[in-house]
Amino acid sequence: MREAHLRIFPCQKEEFPSLDLLTMWLATGLKARAGNYHLRSRTSVADLVTGSIVFFRYGQSLVGEAIVSAYETFQEPKRDRTLMGQEADYEASVTFCASSIRLYVPPVEVSALEQITGRDLSVARTYHRFEDWSIYARLLSAHVANGGAF
Questions:
Q1: Burial class (CB in 10 A: 0-12, 13-18, 19+), 150
Q2: pTM over 0.85
Q3: Number of domains in the chain
Q4: Domain span holding position 28
Q5: What is residue 22's predicted lDDT score, i.e. its pLDDT?
């Protein structure tokens, strides 16, 4: 049986040229798109179950999170525009519950998640997957204990 899990989505500079643009897009653009997020490759995320939580990563920071409500792959790529207005092909789509999209203020350093998981997360382009839900509670607890907010 497929289980909900935690997942990191790496957000690349080709799509989001700056951290500020990404955070603005997550707070307004993604919500305006009813939580619809496109993936360039259908093989990047082979399995993404409703109820999974995605951490949005930019470089060495986790900038926010959202809860998955649907995931689909396309047989033929779909064309859409990037944040910068360029056309691009996308092979999969994730829909997030728009009300679940939130930002970490300030962003959480990936090193904090490495300490919690004991895993090397230095490769920023990887869609890391975590099955242990206690990671989520420990990450949020550490964020709030360090003066973080949402």
A1: exposed
A2: yes
A3: 1
A4: 6-36+48-70+96-145
A5: 96
